[in-house]
Write a structure and sequence with these properties.
By secondary structure, the protein is an alpha+beta fold. It has 4 helices and 7 strands, in the order ααββααβββββ. Strands 3-4-7 form a 3-stranded antiparallel sheet, with no helix packed on it. A two-stranded antiparallel sheet has the order 1-2. A two-stranded antiparallel ribbon has the order 5-6. A hairpin with a 2-residue loop joins strand 3 and strand 4.
Length: 126
C-alpha cells in the first residue's frame, strides 16, 4: 500500500510536484545537451559516472534516454570512473553483495534467474 491508498492523497500530489520540480531543476542545471550527459556541477566542466548513474537511478532520465545514457556511462572514457561505493553496479548489471556463512550453499532465484551460492561467496552479478 502507498500513501494514496492509506489516507493522505494530498501528500502524494504535493510531494510528486516537488519531485518533478527537483528533476526539472537538476536537468536544467546539470545536463549538458551537447554531451547528452549530466555534469558534476552547474559549470558543466567535470563529468563522472556518478552523476549520470544517479540521474538514471532517481528517474530523472527514464526509458530509452536512460538506456542511451547508461551506454555512455559504460563507454565514455572521459567520464571520471565510479568509486568503490558505486561498484555494486557493474557492466550494466547489479552486483549483489552478500555475506554467506562458510558452510552455507544453495541457490538464489530472482527475476527468472537462478544463481548458485557457494560457501564463502560474498558477491554475484544479476
Amino acid at each position: 500500500m502507498d500513501e494514496k491508498e492509506t489516507g493522505m492523497p494530498d501528500f502524494v500530489k504535493y510531494y510528486q510536484q516537488k519531485i518533478d520540480q527537483l528533476k526539472q531543476t537538476i536537468t536544467t542545471l546539470y545536463r549538458d545537451n551537447n554531451r547528452g550527459e549530466f555534469a558534476d556541477a552547474p559549470e558543466k566542466k567535470l563529468f563522472s559516472q556518478h552523476s549520470n548513474i544517479l540521474a538514471i537511478l532517481t528517474g530523472t532520465v527514464e526509458g530509452e534516454d536512460a538506456r542511451k545514457l547508461m551506454d555512455k556511462v559504460l563507454n565514455d572514457k572521459e567520464l571520471t570512473k565510479v568509486t568503490i561505493f558505486f561498484r555494486h553496479f557493474e557492466n550494466g548489471k547489479w552486483k549483489v553483495e552478500i555475506g554467506l556463512p562458510k558452510l552455507l550453499s544453495g541457490y538464489l532465484l530472482w527475476n527468472a534467474g537462478r544463481y548458485e551460492l557457494k560457501p564463502g561467496d560474498n558477491s554475484f552479478i544479476l
